[in-house]
Design a protein that fits this description.
With about 100 residues, the chain is an all-alpha fold. Helix 1 packs antiparallel against helix 2. The chain has five helices and no strands. Helix content is about 70%, strand content about 0%. The protein starts with 13 loop residues before the first helix and ends with a helix.
């Protein structure tokens, strides 16, 4: 499987794109503090979700293009742990931990 060619205009712009999208998402969250209407808050949260989705897709696809196929599972597990953290292991019952 050969890597796809990235257009010259798009090279080197991922960092700027992610920074811009994250800044816009941050502004939308900051504006949420000033909102008193449910509909406006929902629109701002939806906007933040769309921006976060675009940024995550761009980052994950960038990583997948650069990782060797035989290391893809390991790289994706580290990436999933980075995004999800230890949230699943924290939900365990205390009885499981304290036998």
């Amino acid at each position: 499987m050969s890597p796809r060619r990235v257009p010259l205009a798009a090279r080197g712009r991922l960092g700027l794109m992610v920074l811009t999208i994250d800044s816009l998402a941050g502004l939308a969250l900051a504006a949420l503090a000033l909102v008193h209407a449910t509909a406006t808050g929902a629109v701002l949260l939806a906007t933040t979700g769309v921006f976060a989705g675009i940024a995550q897709i761009a980052i994950v696809s960038w990583i997948q293009r650069r990782v060797a196929p035989e290391m893809m599972g390991r790289a994706m597990s580290v990436l999933m742990f980075t995004f999800m953290g230890r949230s699943r292991s924290r939900r365990r019952s205390p009885a499981v931990c304290c036998k």
